[in-house]
Amino acid sequence: TVTANGKNGIKSGATTDEDGEALLTIRDLTLNIDAPVNDAINAEQLLNVESGTLTIDASDDAIHCDLVLNIGADGTDGPTINITNCCEGLEGAELNVCSGDITINASDDCLNAANSDLTDYDFTMTISGGTIDAYSSAGDGFDSNGDLTITGGTVIVWTDNTADNEPLDAETVQKYDLDADGTITVSGGTVLAAGGSSGMGMNLEAAQPCVIYGSTGFGGMPGSTQSSLIAANADFTIEDADGNAVYSGTARCGANFFLFSSADVVADSAYTLKAGDSSTEGTAQSGTVSTGMGMGGGFPGGGQKPDGELPEGFDGQMPEMPGGQRPTPPSGQGSPTDGNAPAGDSTSDTTPTA
């Protein structure tokens, strides 16, 4: 049991020539952390959370790594992580979730692939297994400053923000330049992503078919109005054309945008989102799907804008990310470009397979 009334609950530093390689591995323990000032767990180089049971209440990030953060490992049950309160849940420049049972309640991003001190860095977020049940009251659900890839596992993410935050977000520094945006790829697993905002648009590669339901109007634009698809705490189902439920659940918040993908979804087939007496029709899509900026609904084919273009006259740009130096581990250490652990004690290293 750790109570951090000053800084971080658990801290691991950076690899240096003087001190050698730095890595932190957590396995096979029950860990309770209360961090009312800063992060619960903070690492600068490599952080592996392999197994055990973690309960975290943090003022800032729950689990943070400046470079590579690995949760679980292929072929294992992984850790049980219950984040009851935090600003951001899991954050790393390269964030890999391979296994585990993870619950997150965040005020900002639940998962974040970012580091403002790194420039020209290939930020990645990869979900290949495990179960993630995530809720954000004011931020994005999963936010990658590069690509976001889901190949397996179960992902349930709700975002209550009604402005420009999204349940799934992959954006580079040039936030409103669609050519610069990262790509969201869904090729496996079960994914339910729902939010109070129609969002600022996303570029989705649906290798596994998905169905999208969206609201009318410019979802993320100031002064806009949105028609809610479902109210908070409402029970809902997604049914195929024969009335068979492919998913059922209870809304964590009001939602104007729904994305659902699973192995049971068939491309070009009709699916209906039902909640109480209301229902919304959608058609499953595969391949490249672009929702456009704030155009979550009102268009055929499950809610995407036909051309994926920005609204006429909008040319705003996000400011440049602050400059900084990218830390370079010594030769033989884990490379921040491949997500591998540093050479050394093989029992401590986790090399995820996406």
Short description:
With 354 residues, the protein is mostly beta strands.
The DSSP helix count reads 1
List the secondary-structure elements in sequence, H or E: EEEEEEEEEEEEEEEEEEEEEEEEEEEH
Low confidence ranges: 174-179, 215-226, 293-354
Q: Tell me the major beta sheet.
A: 23 strands, mixed
What does the radius of gyration come to?
A: 20 Å
Give the helix proportion (percent range).
Answer: under 10%
Which secondary-structure class do the elements indicate? mainly beta
Report the span from N to C terminus.
32 Å
- What does the average pLDDT come to? 82
Please report the total strand number as a whole number. Answer: 27
Q: How big a fraction of the residues is strand?
A: 35-45%
Shape: globular
Structural notes for this entry:
The chain has one helix at 300-303, and strands spanning 2-3, 10-12, 24-26, 30-35, 41-43, 46-49, 53-58, 63-71, 80-85, 90-97, 101-106, 111-113, 124-127, 131-136, 142-144, 147-150, 154-159, 168-170, 184-186, 190-195, 203-214, 235-240, 245-250, 257-261, 270-275, 278-283, 285-290. It is mainly β. The strands form 2 sheets. It has a 23-stranded mixed β-sheet that branches. The protein has a 4-stranded antiparallel β-sheet with strand order 23-22-25-26.
